[in-house]
Every structure is written in structure tokens, then in C-alpha cells.
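C-alpha cells in:
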């Protein structure tokens, strides 16, 4: 009989913030790593794996001497301590697509600088897995993975495949404890190890026997290996300490008789905690806003100016600052309140840096002259940050000295006037400042303008500003809320939408509904006696502007103020919430733009926006580089037993979903469900989930705790809340551009300089633009094909170019093409990257 071998992987799982804020956890990290360095240097343990994330290196370096940090680095260079490949262990469903790439890129770079080249896609504790992860790992040259939550295959060694066919050899941790092994610290460690070995001996599916010696915020003890050797001597079990590199080779030698595919959210073995998609939605909204500014503002403008601002270090720092918020206990909203306050501060700091960087780039490209008598800043440079041809809304701010102002302004594109949808004027003092000139104060006429322009893609259009006479103000009037696509009406207190293309009315749209939530930050859980409430529109009016209509509604929702003291049903008293909604229609835009505001004064409840989708048989939604079709569910039994978690009725969405003929694009509203009810099929988008505890042990939907039982009163999301989403009816109007247009800005910069305009690049085809960067004299373009069949894409550059396909590790991935117009083929469900250089 072959001797059993325990492969001992010493590690720690380090949440840099969770039940303690970062500053406190940083001290614990320092002490833990000092202990590990000492054990390795003295030979007490042979090797150690630093949790697959390099952010801990930055955190450690900040609070130790350089001599201490170099001791750690020396052990990494010697291969005794391994780091990477990630910068942080991020939540996969909430981390934006481009952030997944930056996470691996920065992590691999930091690890490589220290000579650590781990080929393992280590994902031990994320709350389920996106279906595209094997594809992303393979494009970075990583062909192995370790996972735990969300997967329960027949075997432990499997191939995990993405929809494009990419696959990685994967070790699925078999036990319910997964990576969390602390038995060596207990007096009964021999019984613990014996049970561990016997479990694997009785499981056909268990091949490679890996003991992960460590857990959350704890590292191996000094006597751990003595205990293991003692157990091995008595039981005849062989013990081998392994590096992650050694584990990769061992996994190579294991047969993979099973393939698991795509998205992994199976919670039969261990909780996947999908309620975190809707916890603290204010946090998710800000996360999406800042992600969009990093991709469509910081990176785009760097590419636009060909990195003339030499901003490599700034971009890296801002991505790092953003990525630390992607850690699963951080962006999931399931930490103590102090953590999430600090996260919001990080977002604010990143926004401040991006804002000033944008001003700096645009000022160099299109200077605004002030303080010089007679200077005329009579040109407006408008830049579209999306590569798709089409019409976009532009918002511009125009400043005129009072001696040039005539009470109004007009814009001209060549000899054609630009119709204005909005033109508001006020006079106020403006403060001008630039590091190379003197500060300046001056009273100015300030114009806030809105108008539409047609773009060929990533293009600059130069408009002429002409001071003109007074313009009539837009008047509110009684008129229908409609454009050439839709007509909106309020009937019986609910929104109804007419799809003019096919003449179909959609009733019961965007109905706000509330139910009680007796859960925690990890899971929704209904109480034994629920109390459901439905809002009704009680007042509405239509505002009309040229090319624009806005329907303003006021809805009233009466609901319990929270749970009763025993948490089994509603509290005795009720509160009334007033919900203000704006539905904005633009004449040539098939998106109904929705902005919802309310002052939330209720606790312990879940608020959804519901849409009737009669006859819907299946629905689809996106996550990072994936597009998943899902079945329509019936009611879910909320009651489970000990150690169990209810099968999720909710589904993840990154930026959009499609149910029936409705495409819904959103900003940070990551949880939805489509249910079959007595009244028909209904799509429910979660706006708020209000709870007051980090973790509880009395949930009907989860039989056990998921963390410390600390109070989190700020997770009740009290106060002013705002939500943004867009509705598109009729499949002919659906487009991958819509979720991007919700996020990507059109820049408008007033200047004294005229230009002939400029086209950077344009894309035509059914692919999703992911990002554009500039490095080493080349543009890096990434697109994703959400369709199952290969698609051809017409790429038009504003210059003669060489286009080279490559993978995410910058290795060539196809034949080079040349020219200003190129036909590219993107494989089904594939992420494709192109390096574009000027000839």
C-alpha cells in the first residue's frame, strides 16, 4: 500500500481589514511576519506562502525598518517565502473587469521584482468565482489554481474551464474548513490530523493531500512541525513541507478526470455568502464610479496625450489605492463600520487625484488663458472617451468675462449651429490658479450647457463659442414624456412604458417594493412573519427641453420602521418613505435614464425596483469578462439546517442584465433576481439591503455564523441614498455600448486655441470595449466578445498603425496587421488585446 503523504503548506490568510480596521490589522501583520521571518531564518519551518497577495509587502514596509524589510525580501529572493500572483485577493463578482487585470499585473510585477514567480492562481476564500477566471489566468501564463468556496466537484483535482475554452488545472480544497486549518495549535492535534487523513482516505475524489497550515490572521506556531513529525512517526504518515511552486508540480502529476465549467456558486460544501452583493450599495456605487474614472478618464487621457505627463507612477499608485478596496471583506461591505468609512475616504482621495490629473492633461492640450485683457477662450474642445461611433450627450461649462458677455452663448461646428438642450447662466466670482502663473479672481458669466454631438469614435471635435443675446429659458409645460422610442405614462400609481417600435405597452415597471430583512451583512434572511410593502406614485410632472423630456415622480412607501425586538416579525410602528425618481428621455437615445433618491429612515429591510417581464423563460447578466444565461426561479425555501446556506435566489450582475425584452444597465447595483410568481414573471433589482450586524447565528437562510457578531449600525444605510440605472426596451435597441455610456465621460474643455479635431480610434462590431492604455510608445486596446461565435470588428485608427494581438502577459497572440482600417476577429466569449503602434 502506498504511503500517505501530507503536503504541508505553511501560510496565512490576511484580510488587511475586516473585524478590525486597517491601521489595527497592520500592527498585527507586522508582528505575524516578524514571527514567520524568525521561524524561516532559524530553520523551524522550511518555507511559507504569503497568501497570494503582494499588498502585504507595501503594508509591512510602511511600519518596519529597512533592515527588517530587507530580511523579508532576502527570504523571498531565496524562494523560502513566496508572494503573489495577486496584489490583493479581491471579490470576483464585485471587482470591475479592468481591475481584475490590474490586480494580476501589479501583483506579478511586484513578486517578479523579488524573484518570486508563483504559477498558482490562488483564490482560497473568495465568495464564489467568475466564469472568466481560467481565461484571465491563462492569458497571464498561469495554468494552475486553488479554490474552495463555490465548487463541490466529484474530484479534488479538476480542469476548470471558461466559456472560450481556456482551462486551468485546479485543486479544489475538499474539506468544509478549506484553507482554514488551525488544528496544530490545539492539544488534540493528533486526533485532528488523524481525522484529516482518514477523511481523504475515504474520499475517491481526494488525490493530492494538502494541509494548509494557517488561517485568517494567524500563522504557524513554533512547535507545529514537531507535532506533525510526532504524528507522522506514530501513524506512518509521511510529511513534506511544500512551497507553492512545488505544489504546482505535484498538481501537474495528478490526473484530472473531471472538468468544471464557468461560474462557480455551489454552496453545498461551504457558504458562498451572496448577500454581500447588495450590502452597503452606496459602497458599490462609489466603487463603480471610481473604477470608471480610472479606466475612462485617467487611463484614457494618458493614452490621448501619449503619456506626455509622465504619469506611470501616479497611475500605479492610484490603481493600488483602488485595489485594496476590492478585497472581499472590504468591497463586500461585511466589515466593521470603521473599515467602510475609511474606504469611502480612499475613494474620495482617488477622485481628487484623478480630477487634478485631468485638469493638468487638458490644460496642456487645450490651454485656457486668464488675466490677460482681451484674451478670448472662444473654442470648446469636446472629446469622446468611447471608441464606438454614435451620438452622445455633452455637458460643458463656459466662462466669459463680463466685458465679452452678451447674455447668452451659441456653439458652432464649422458653419452649422449646435442645438442646445440646456443653457443656464449665472454671474459669479471665479478663482483661477496654475502653478506657473499668478492666482486670479474675476467675476465671470458662467454657462452650464447640454447638447448632443455625433462622434466617429474616440474623437475630438472643436466647436466655436459665440457670445450672443439672451436666450429664452426652458419652460416646464404639460407635455407627454416621450421620444421616438418610448412614451411614459403613470397608470394606477405605476409606471407604464410604450415601446413605439413594436407598439407594446410594458406595465408594472420600476415598482418599488420593500420586505423585511432579518439577515446580516453576508446574507439576506426573511423573518418568520414578513411585511411586504409597495410604493405608489402620488404625484408627477413632465419637464420639457429641446430634444429632452424628464418625467418627475414622487412615490410613497409605508413600511415597518424595522424588526420587532424578537426579530420574528415587523416592529409596531411604521415610517413613510418618499421616493423621488427622474426618468429622462433624449430624442435619439433608446435608454430611459433613471435617477432615484430617497431618505431611508427604515431599518432591517430590503428595497427592490421591480419590473414585470411576462413570459420570460431565461435571463442573462454580466460579470467581469463573462456573460451568463440563467433560468427563471420559483420561490425559494428560506429555511435551512445547521451548517447550510439557502440556495441563492439572487444573481450577480456587473454592469447589465437582460430579462425578456428589457436590458437594464446600472451603476453598482450588483444583485437581481427573476422570479416566477402568481402574477407572472418579475425582474427585481436590489437597491438597498439594510441590516445591523456583521454576522448573526440565528438566520433562517444560513445555519451558522460567517464572522464575528459585531454590530454594524451604518450597514442600515440610513439617510440620503441615490441610485442610477438605465432601461432599454426591445431587443433591437439592446447594445453593449449602453452600460459603458453610463460610465464613460465626454470631456469638454474651453480654450483659447483652435484645432482641426482628431480621431484616435473607432470600433464597429458587437464587442465590449474594456480599456485603453498607453505604455512604451504603444496603445494597448482590450475588447471582449460576449457572444458564443467569433465576431469581426472593424478597427479604424486616425493614423497608420501596426496592430499586434497579444495576451495579458504581453506575449504575441497572432499575426500583425497594418493600416488605418483593420478587420479583427475576436473568438467567442474571448478577451482580446491589441498593441497598436504608429508606423
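Residues out:
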Amino acid at each position: 500500500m502506498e504511503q500517505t503523504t501530507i503536503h504541508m503548506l505553511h501560510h496565512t490568510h490576511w484580510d488587511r481589514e475586516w473585524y478590525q480596521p486597517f491601521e489595527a490589522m497592520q500592527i498585527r501583520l507586522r508582528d505575524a511576519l516578524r514571527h514567520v521571518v524568525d521561524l524561516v531564518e532559524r530553520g523551524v519551518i522550511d518555507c511559507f506562502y504569503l497568501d497570494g497577495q503582494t499588498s502585504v509587502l507595501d503594508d509591512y514596509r510602511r511600519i518596519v525598518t529597512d533592515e527588517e524589510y530587507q530580511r523579508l525580501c532576502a527570504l523571498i529572493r531565496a524562494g523560502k517565502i513566496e508572494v503573489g500572483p495577486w496584489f490583493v485577493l479581491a471579490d470576483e463578482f464585485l471587482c470591475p473587469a479592468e481591475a481584475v487585470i490590474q490586480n494580476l499585473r501589479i501583483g506579478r510585477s511586484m513578486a517578479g521584482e523579488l524573484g518570486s514567480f508563483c504559477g498558482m492562481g490562488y483564490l482560497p476564500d473568495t465568495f464564489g468565482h467568475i466564469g472568466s477566471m481560467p481565461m484571465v489566468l491563462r492569458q497571464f501564463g498561469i495554468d494552475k489554481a486553488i479554490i474552495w468556496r463555490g465548487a463541490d466537484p466529484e474530484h479534488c483535482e479538476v480542469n476548470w474551464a471558461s466559456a472560450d475554452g481556456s482551462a486551468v488545472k485546479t485543486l479544489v480544497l475538499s474539506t468544509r474548513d478549506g484553507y482554514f486549518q488551525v488544528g496544530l495549535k490545539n492539544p488534540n492535534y493528533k486526533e485532528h490530523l488523524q481525522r484529516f487523513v482518514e477523511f481523504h482516505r475515504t474520499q475517491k475524489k481526494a488525490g493530492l493531500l494538502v494541509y494548509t497550515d494557517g488561517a485568517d490572521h494567524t500563522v504557524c506556531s513554533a512547535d507545529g512541525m514537531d507535532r506533525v513529525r510526532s504524528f507522522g512517526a506514530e501513524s506512518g504518515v509521511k510529511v513534506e513541507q511544500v512551497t507553492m511552486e512545488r505544489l504546482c508540480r505535484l498538481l501537474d502529476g495528478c490526473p484530472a478526470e473531471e472538468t468544471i465549467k464557468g461560474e462557480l456558486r455551489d454552496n453545498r460544501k461551504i457558504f458562498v455568502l451572496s448577500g454581500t452583493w447588495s450590502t452597503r450599495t452606496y459602497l458599490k456605487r462609489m466603487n463603480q464610479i471610481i473604477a470608471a474614472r480610472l479606466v475612462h478618464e485617467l487611463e484614457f487621457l494618458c493614452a490621448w496625450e501619449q503619456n506626455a505627463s509622465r504619469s506611470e507612477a501616479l497611475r500605479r499608485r492610484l490603481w493600488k489605492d483602488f485595489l485594496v478596496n476590492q478585497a472581499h471583506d472590504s468591497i463586500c461591505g461585511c466589515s466593521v463600520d470603521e473599515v467602510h468609512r475609511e474606504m469611502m475616504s480612499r475613494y474620495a482621495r482617488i477622485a481628487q487625484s484623478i480630477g487634478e490629473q485631468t485638469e493638468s492633461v487638458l490644460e496642456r492640450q487645450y490651454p485656457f488663458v486668464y488675466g490677460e485683457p482681451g484674451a478670448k477662450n472662444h473654442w470648446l474642445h469636446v472629446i469622446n472617451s468611447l471608441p464606438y461611433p454614435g451620438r452622445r450627450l455633452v455637458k460643458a461649462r463656459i466662462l466669459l468675462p463680463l466685458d465679452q458677455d452678451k447674455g447668452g452663448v451659441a456653439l458652432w461646428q464649422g458653419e452649422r449651429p449646435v442645438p442646445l438642450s440646456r443653457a443656464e447662466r449665472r454671474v459669479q466670482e471665479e478663482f483661477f490658479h496654475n502653478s506657473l502663473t499668478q492666482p486670479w479672481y474675476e467675476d465671470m458669466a458662467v454657462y452650464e450647457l447640454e447638447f448632443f454631438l455625433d462622434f466617429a469614435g474616440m474623437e475630438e471635435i472643436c466647436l466655436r463659442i459665440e457670445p450672443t443675446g439672451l436666450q429664452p429659458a426652458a419652460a416646464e409645460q404639460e407635455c407627454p414624456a416621450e421620444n421616438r422610442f418610448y412614451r411614459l405614462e403613470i397608470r394606477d400609481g405605476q409606471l407604464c412604458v410604450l415601446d413605439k417600435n413594436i407598439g407594446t405597452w410594458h406595465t408594472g415597471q420600476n415598482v418599488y417594493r420593500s420586505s423585511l430583512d432579518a439577515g446580516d451583512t453576508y446574507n439576506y434572511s426573511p423573518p418568520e412573519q414578513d411585511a411586504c410593502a409597495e410604493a405608489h406614485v402620488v404625484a408627477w410632472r413632465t419637464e420639457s427641453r429641446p430634444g429632452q423630456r424628464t418625467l418627475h415622480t414622487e412615490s410613497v412607501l409605508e413600511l415597518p420602521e424595522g424588526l420587532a425586538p424578537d426579530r420574528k416579525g415587523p416592529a409596531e410602528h411604521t415610517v413613510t418613505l418618499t421616493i423621488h425618481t427622474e426618468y429622462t428621455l433624449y430624442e435619439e437615445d433608446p435608454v430611459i435614464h433613471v435617477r432615484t433618491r430617497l431618505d431611508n429612515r427604515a431599518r432591517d429591510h430590503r428595497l427592490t425596483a421591480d419590473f414585470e417581464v411576462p413570459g420570460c423563460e431565461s435571463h442573462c447578466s454580466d460579470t467581469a469578462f463573462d456573460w451568463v444565461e440563467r433560468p427563471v426561479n420559483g420561490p425559494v425555501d428560506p429555511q435551512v439546517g445547521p451548517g447550510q446556506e439557502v440556495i441563492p435566489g439572487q444573481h450577480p450582475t456587473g454592469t447589465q442584465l437582460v430579462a425578456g425584452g428589457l436590458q437594464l444597465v446600472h451603476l453598482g447595483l450588483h444583485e437581481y433576481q427573476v422570479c416566477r410568481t402568481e402574477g407572472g414573471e418579475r425582474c427585481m433589482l436590489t437597491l438597498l439591503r439594510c441590516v445591523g450586524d456583521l454576522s448573526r447565528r440565528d438566520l433562517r437562510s444560513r445555519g451558522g455564523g460567517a464572522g464575528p457578531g459585531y454590530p454594524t449600525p451604518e450597514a442600515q444605510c440610513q439617510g440620503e441614498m441615490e441610485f442610477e440605472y438605465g432601461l432599454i426596451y426591445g431587443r433591437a435597441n439592446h447594445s453593449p455600448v449602453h452600460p459603458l455610456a453610463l460610465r464613460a465621460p465626454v470631456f469638454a474643455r474651453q480654450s483659447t486655441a483652435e484645432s482641426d479635431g482628431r480621431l484616435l480610434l473607432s470600433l464597429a462590431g458587437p464587442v465590449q470595449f474594456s480599456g485603453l492604455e498607453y505604455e512604451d510608445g504603444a496603445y494597448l486596446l482590450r475588447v471582449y466578445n460576449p457572444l458564443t461565435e467569433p465576431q469581426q470588428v472593424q478597427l479604424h485608427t486616425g493614423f497608420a498603425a501596426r496592430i499586434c494581438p497579444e495576451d495579458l502577459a504581453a506575449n504575441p497572440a497572432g499575426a500583425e496587421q497594418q493600416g488605418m482600417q483593420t478587420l479583427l476577429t475576436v473568438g467567442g466569449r474571448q478577451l482580446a488585446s491589441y498593441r497598436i503602434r504608429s508606423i
